[in-house]
Design goal:
The chain has 243 residues and is α+β, with helices and mostly antiparallel strands. It folds into 2 domains: 75 residues, no CATH class; 100 residues, Ferric Hydroxamate Uptake Protein, Chain A, domain 1, CATH 2.170.130.20. The strands form 2 sheets. The chain has a 6-stranded mixed sheet. A two-stranded antiparallel sheet has the order 6-7. A hairpin with a 1-residue loop joins strand 3 and strand 4. The radius of gyration is 44 Å and the shape is elongated. It starts with a helix and ends with a strand.
Length: 243
């Protein structure tokens, strides 16, 4: 019985006597590669290879970006030229249509003005005022007539070639630069008098055409009692014409 009770302790002592030592971890080939790649001690020849590869990649990217930039610039110039050509052709068509309608416009307004005067002369003021209001509505709706814009400063180079109809009253108050073609910041009603399109105090329909002023030199002159001033290049200019 005592022998059986001591058997477990015997087994424990035998196991401890023959227990194998815990194996130590030895570096593997993969671990050695990791140490070479990520350690602080990069060999000079390996670092030189990596540096050269990085320089090559950077140069290739720089050249590709430069090429893409050049292609983009060419495309943007071509698009801008197409838009300008489209605007010019559209403006030419509109101008031709406007000129074709001009006789009808003048005849219609002459007849309506005559009727307006007749009604006013016979004391029928309400009828005369109604005709006057209708004339103004027709100008705006049918022919796109706009009120005096002051100057053409709100227009840009994208409007070159386009024409607009304005109802103006000629005046000699305000500044203008140029002769026949005027800088965009010139007062349109003064330019209309200077160009001979209107007289001072005269009301009339004036066609104003946007022209390129970037390569013009605006020479001043004395015309119709108005002195215009000199100016250099100006991006947007305009010309006036009586409708």
């Amino acid at each position: 019985m005592n022998l059986l009770l001591g058997f477990p302790q015997l087994l424990t002592r035998l196991a401890e006597r023959h227990r194998l030592p815990t194996p130590t971890r030895t570096p593997t080939a993969m671990q050695l590669d990791d140490d070479l790649l990520f350690g602080d001690e990069m060999p000079a020849d390996a670092r030189a290879l990596l540096d050269e590869a990085e320089r090559t990649v950077a140069e290739v990217r720089r050249k590709s970006e430069q090429t893409v930039g050049g292609v983009r610039d060419i495309a943007e110039r071509e698009i801008a030229a197409i838009r300008l050509r489209l605007s010019a052709e559209e403006a030419a068509v509109q101008l031709e249509a406007s000129r074709e309608l001009s006789p009808l416009l003048r005849d219609l307004f002459a007849q309506l003005k005559s009727l307006q005067a007749n009604y006013a002369g016979t004391g029928m003021l309400d009828e005369a005022l109604a005709i006057r209001a209708r004339l103004r509505t027709l100008r705006a709706d049918l022919f796109g007539v706009k009120a005096d814009p002051g100057s053409m400063s709100d227009f840009s180079s994208t409007d070159v070639g386009k024409s607009y109809l304005f109802e103006l009253v000629g005046t000699n108050e305000g500044n203008i630069w140029g002769t026949d073609a005027y800088t965009g910041d010139s007062r349109v009603a003064v330019a209309a008098v200077h160009s001979g399109t209107l007289r001072v105090g005269e009301r009339g329909l004036v066609r104003v055409t946007i022209v390129d002023g970037s390569e013009r030199v605006f020479d001043g002159s004395e015309r119709h009692g108005i002195r215009s001033m000199d100016y250099g290049n100006y991006s947007v200019a305009f010309q006036t014409e009586r409708v």
